[in-house]
Amino acid sequence: MLRGVLLLLSLIWFSPALHARQEPPKIACYSIEEHNAPYKKKLWDGYEISLGPSANAEEVELKCTAAIYNQAGRVVFRTSGFNVVFDEELTGKDFDGDGKPDVVFQTDTGGGNHCCWGYIIYSISPKPHKLFEIAMEGRVDFEKDKDGKMVIWQRRSAPGGSGTSMAMRPFAEKVFRVKDGKLVDATAEFCRRNDPRFERSDLPPEDLKRLEHAGEPGYEDIENIISALEARTAQHVYCREYDEALKDLNLWPADKRGTEAKILLDALGGEYPEFAAKLRESSVKK
User: Fold this and answer.
1) Torsion angles phi and psi, residue 173, rounded to 5
2) Checking CA distances to 163, which of 56, 226, 231, 276 falls within 20 to 30 Å?
3) Chain region(s) in the chain for CATH 2.40.128
């Protein structure tokens, strides 16, 4: 029960749209607002950003837009969405390790839906180019390691086959470094640490016993158990702890195990072929 409450609070607090209302950024455009003022802000090396309503905003779906202009006043980058935010806190940080500051926008292409916010990280040195995007399904933390290199923690939705509600859907943590301007999965490197962001829930036998009723009417109160096990299993896969993931799958009742295994294989098999091979060779689906 406690895990369910914490997860719901996490979804509310870290939803970009809701978070923006609690601490309104100075330079932002929201489609639900009647009057969005246009903004301009100088960056460095002669570059400038503008942000505000799209041209003919009443006639287009993506009502907000932002652009970066070069020294000649030409657009070198543009992002449009239902909502667009210029992230003043993150802009100026060096994401790719080239010693130069970068520019960060948050863009919502889903009309405020939790699914569709994302960070866009853009570099204007030595030539303007987009570095990467990272989805904001859940909380995203930007940190520096002991060597001053950027580390990105992304909480992302984990695959599940037993039909939890949106509020209780499973999440697990991935960690990225930035190499050659691109995101590189470094989760396994960090899994050795005892970081509370990793999904390592303990599930007592009496909770696991209740999984035999997963998906049945009248047993919605076991969603937190389902979510905890699915999150932990996905975390094992992200950490490349494949044997532990298989052990988790075998905790499911036999009549539900195959469904869980198939959805996990479909969702993660392409990204983790070694796990997919182990899963196919194991008896977990039998």
Assistant:
1) -105, 135
2) 276
3) 16-137
User: What is the DSSP secondary structure assignment for residue 272, as one 8-state letter?
Assistant: -
Distances (CA, A) of 119 to 54, 133, 265, 271: 19, 5, 28, 22
How many CB atoms within 10 Å of residue 204?
Answer: 8
- CB hemisphere CA count around 27 (13 angstroms): 18
Number of alpha carbons in the 13 Å side-chain half-sphere of residue 104: 16
Q: Distance (Å, rounded) from C-alpha 122 to C-alpha 96?
A: 10
Dig out the tokens for 103 from the structure: 């520019």
CA-based nearest residue to 161, from 93, 102, 248, 53: 248
Residue 197 backbone dihedrals phi, psi, to 5 degrees: -70, -20
Mean pLDDT lowest for which of 155-164, 219-228, 270-279?
155-164
Q: Which residues contact 259 (CB under 8 A, 6 or more apart)?
A: 161, 162
What's the rounded Cα separation, in Å, for the pair 212 and 210?
Answer: 5
Residues 6+ apart with CB under 8 A from 37: 52
The per-residue DSSP string of 182-232 comes to: EEEE-HHHHTTS--TTS------HHHHHGGGGTT-TT-GGGHHHHHHHHHH
How far from 237 is each of 20, 77, 87, 106, CA to CA, in Å?
A: 33, 36, 32, 29
CATH class of the domain comprising 16-137: mainly beta
- The Cα–Cα gap between 152 and 139 comes to 10
Mean pLDDT over 15-41 rounds to 75
Pairing of β 182-185 and β 171-179: antiparallel
**Could you give the CA distance from residue 68 to residue 84 in angstroms, rounded to a whole number?**
13
Per-residue pLDDT reduced to its tens digit, 116-144: 899 999 999 999 999 999 999 999 999 99
